[in-house]
Amino acid sequence: MAPDSISRRAFLRAGAAAGGGLLLGVMLGIPAARAQQPAASFEPNAFVLIGTDGHVTITMPYIEMGQGTYTSVPMLVAEELEIGLDQVRLRHAPASDKLYVNPLLGFQITGGSTTMRGAWLPLRQAGAAARVMLVQAAAQGWNVPAAECAAERGEVVHRASGRRVRYGDVAAAAAGLPVPHDVALKAPGAFRLIGTPARRLDTALKVDGSAVYGIDARVPGMKFAALAQSPVFGGRLRGVDTKAALRVKGVRQVVRLDDCVAVIADHTGAARKGLAALKIRWDDGPHATLTTAALRQGLQAASAGAAARVRSEGDAAAATGTRVAATYDQPLLIHAPMEPMNCTVHVRPDGCDVWVGTQVATRAQAAAAAMTGLPLEKVTVHNHYLGGSFGRRLEVDNVTRAVQIAKQVRGPVKVIWSREEDVQHDVYRGPFHDRLQAVLDERGMPLAWTHRITGPSTLKRYLPPAYNNGFDPEVTEGAAEIPYAIPNLLVEYVNHEPPAVPTGFWRGVGPAHNVFVVESFIDELAAQAGKDPVAYRAALLEKNPRALAVLRLAADKAGWGGALPARTGRGVSLQSVFGTYLALVTEASVADDGTIAVRRVTAAVDPGIAINPDTIAAQIESAVIFGISAALYGEATLANGRIEQSNFHDVRVLRINEVPAIATHIVPSTEAPGGMGEPGTAALFPSLANAVHAATGKRLRTLPLDPAALKVA
Amino acid sequence: MSVFAADSSGSALSGLRRSRFRLNEEVDVKVNGTDHKVDVDGDTPVLWVLRDVLGMTGTKFGCGMGLCGACTIHVDGQPTRACLTPVQAVAKGHVQTIEALAQSDVGAALQKAWLALDVPQCGYCQSGQLMSAAGLLATNKAPSDDEIDAAMAGNICRCGTYPRIRAGIRQAALALNGGGGHGA
Question: Residue A73 and residue A110: Cα distance in Å, rounded?
């Protein structure tokens, strides 16, 4: 093909890009003028689009909810494509399992700390393929061998003659070339961008109010809705008196659903005022007497029942020696991201548009399709930045609810949940009850380890093919495989769903509740043996050098063993989950009234190849602080079938004045990258509980940590 | 705790008598130097006037009870929770939002520090954080840790950016006082 012709496929994509450029620009906060795409561009795959102006638009298969994907994923592309990050523009991916599948999980999903693991090869391949084609196009244009040309910083260079050409000027020609597969990728020694603390690409949008979150979607003609859902789980709407609401200025209509009422208005203020003026009667249904105590009793009773044998090594039941046993209890946990749940929907006879921030665009699409009866291809999901999630936005109940409402509204409608609705209709991290037993030899070292986990399975509901007769890899991660060499091991799981209360994924998922008990219990064994907690663990890590390395580094950097004031202690925790090794040392003081103050957290992490060390540090800070909030204050309680908490006065979270100093130390590695979004949360719970034990001698086996149990008598 | 304490009796609109607010006239409001006339009840929180009527979505909704600080704006230079402030109450005042933060030296210095340190993660709370921080530095050129705590404790961040917020405030203060010299 002649160098200046473009393939039909590239032309079609260029047309779409040109037409869609303005809308995409608005949605990502890019000024409209800059967002116009040129008429011809080069789009060799679903991720990379290079315009004749030289700008590189990367379509992001993994969403941004704070964890830094919108910088680290472009770094993978830019490294192989040989461009600077300053040349990158970002585009939220549309819904497409085919184009944007997460290879670890089998569909389009951001979560489980899988992004770097999922993107590592495919996104580098995408950048490399584009680079090869640009070099080839330039070489053809110069009539020289491609091997004599190199790509650097958005240009192709012919070394011998010194000729250079910008990518933009060969984009059209490159579009006519066949796309190569399995291009050789750079060896880590050649990285110039990966491994550097590159500045985030989204910070500029987040300091001037221009980043567009789902809740910020603006659609011409849009109305605004406030809703009330049945306060008791499983309740129904019996009736509603709408007279006063309809008199509120700006209120247009009231929508009734089976278990929900919504007020539609010209702005959210009027919708909320109208909602407050409704007289709603609920039929509370069968769960109106449900309490936290009943949930706990149900869990404990179930833990005595039939269990799935998740892992068995040797014969734990036959071991003889000193027996140590403990049970642990963990509560329902609330997500409370800063952006409350919301969704904007326009239902039309011929199609449906959904504007939302979601971790699962294809599930959002499917939910809207199911609720409207439209085929998938008639439902368009417009994704956004997410104002926090912590797993909440893996659910699409906000989409389903908004579509239900929108079906009764003419034109687009933005449905915003109040904070009260967001808290009381969360999909909570479920409650767990754990029983552990160990048999120790004469040196106090563990011969046998038995762990029975009892609690709900999210996978059973969320992804049934992944749940196989009680074998749930998510709910057992961090317990089924522990870092320590213990010859006899038995791990079991009893699936118990709490009545009525919906449960789901929460930051840290399985490890967040499993590592708490594993690392608390190993600490109890160390105490039983009269040994130092770090030394005790180290002795069990002969076969696990990466785990031993982070343990030693954290202890060293934290000054483990150094003197501390009275009622101040250090606690350690160690884990290998999400593909990342992490050791945390937390230093905490306990006042005489039992109040816990977290002073310092030291993290040593081996995440495999560190793609962006600043992102790694930021995720340690983030996950640890998120964990401290939950460890100290996190608990959703039930009375009369409803969640008692409602807003930030009784959903207590850490404030700036309660934050410890946090230091992160990264172990250099050339292993494949692991995940960083969640490890810190899982590690914090036990390291803090262990610190409290070191400070007071009291072993707390229940979360949240209760100051009343730590009061000086 | 602070002037921003929520009305603990519940909904922001509870207890407000209809007779105190204009309900059938347009309300004047001046935002970032521009005058607007908006056709809403006078007791409408200015948050929704900004976001829904004027289309300025930089100011965020987080709780509706003045507990989280996401909605922080300046009214006559004072950090104010827009979710609890009736639009009529600011009719004679000057409202400034995150969209205009860069126009002040303090605001620009904070944004520059935020960029240098990569303070935001999800970023949803950051408009409110920056507006509160700007209110602090406008009146206190070299705040202590306790003063930073007092000014910022009303702003929740669920992503844990607090250590970088504190560092950002210190860095901006240093730059404003002629020290530092760090590039963005």
Answer: 12
A346 in Cβ contact with A412 (< 8 Å): yes
Partner-chain contact B158 A340, CB within 8 Å = no
Residue B22's pLDDT band (cuts 50, 70, 90): low
The pLDDT of residue B180 is: 55
How far away is chain A from the Cα of B123, in angstroms, using its nearest Cα? Answer: 5
Q: Which one of B8, B53, B71, B118 makes the best mutation probe of the A interface by having the most chain A beta carbons within 10 Å?
A: B118
pLDDT digits (tens, 9 = 90+) for A660-685: 999 999 999 999 999 999 999 999 99
Q: How far is A218 from chain B (nearest CA, A)?
A: 8
Say if CB A399 and CB A353 are below 8 A apart: no
**Angstrom distance (rounded) from CA A236 to CA A281:** 9
Establish if A376 touches chain B: CB-CB under 8 angstroms: no
Do B123 and A200 count as a contact with CB atoms less than 8 A apart?
Answer: no
| Chain B partners within 8 Å of A653 (Cβ) | 156, 158
Distance between CA atoms of residues A672 and A606, nearest Å: 11
CA angle, A418 then A420 then A421, to 5°: 65
Contact A508, A628 (CB under 8 A): no
* pLDDT band for position A40 (cuts 50, 70, 90): confident
- B-proximal residues of A, 395-434, CB under 8 Å: 416, 418-419
Decide: A176 and A7 in contact? Cβ < 8 Å: yes
Which residue of chain A is at minimal alpha-carbon distance from B16? A273
Average pLDDT over residues A197-214: 98
Residue A197, both tokens: 């603390």
Across residues A544-565, what is the average pLDDT? 98
Average pLDDT of chain A to the nearest whole number: 94
pLDDT at A468: 86
User: Which tokens in the block code for residue A355?
Assistant: 């504007």
- At residue B21, the pLDDT reads 67
Cβ–Cβ gap A207/B122 under 8 Å: no
Q: Average pLDDT for residues A307-321, to the nearest whole number?
A: 96
Task: Summarize the confidence of residues A274-294 as an average pLDDT.
Answer: 98
Predicted local distance difference test score (pLDDT) of residue A54? 87
| Candidates A206, A216, A337; nearest CB to B120 | A206
**DSSP characters over A298-347:** HHHHHTTS--EEEEEES-GGG--SEEEEEEEEE-BB----SS--EEEEEE
What letter does residue B53 receive in the DSSP assignment? I
| Subunit contact A249:B163, Cβ cutoff 8 A | no
The C-alpha atoms of residue B91 and residue B77 are separated, in whole angstroms, by 15
Can you tell me the ipTM of this complex? 0.94
Instruction: Tell me which residue in A216, A270, A653 faces B57 most closely, judged by beta carbons.
Output: A216
Q: Who contacts A146 (Cβ-Cβ below 8 Å, separation ≥6)?
A: A135, A136, A139
Question: Is pTM, for the whole model, over 0.90?
Answer: yes
pLDDT of A9? 37
pLDDT digits (tens, 9 = 90+) for A561-573: 999 999 999 999 9
Contact A589, A568 (CB under 8 A): yes
Radius of gyration of chain B (CA): 17
Q: Cβ A614–B111 below 8 Å, yes or no?
A: no
User: Are B59 and A622 within 8 A, CB to CB?
Assistant: no
Residue A654 contacts B, CB cutoff 8 Å: yes
Q: What DSSP line would sit under A57-111, residue for residue?
A: EEEESS--SSSSHHHHHHHHHHHHHT--GGGEEEEE--S-HHHH--TTTSSS---
Separation in Å, CA of A685 to nearest CA in chain B? 16
**Region A211-226: what's the mean pLDDT?**
98
Which residue in chain A has the smallest CA separation from B145? A657
Structure tokens at A281: 């009667």
B-contacting residues in A 46-105 (Cβ below 8 Å): 64-68
> Which residues pair with residue A149 across a beta bridge?
A158
Q: Do B160 and A625 touch (CB under 8 A)?
A: yes
- Report, in angstroms and rounded to the nearest whole number, the Rg of chain A calculated over CA atoms: 27
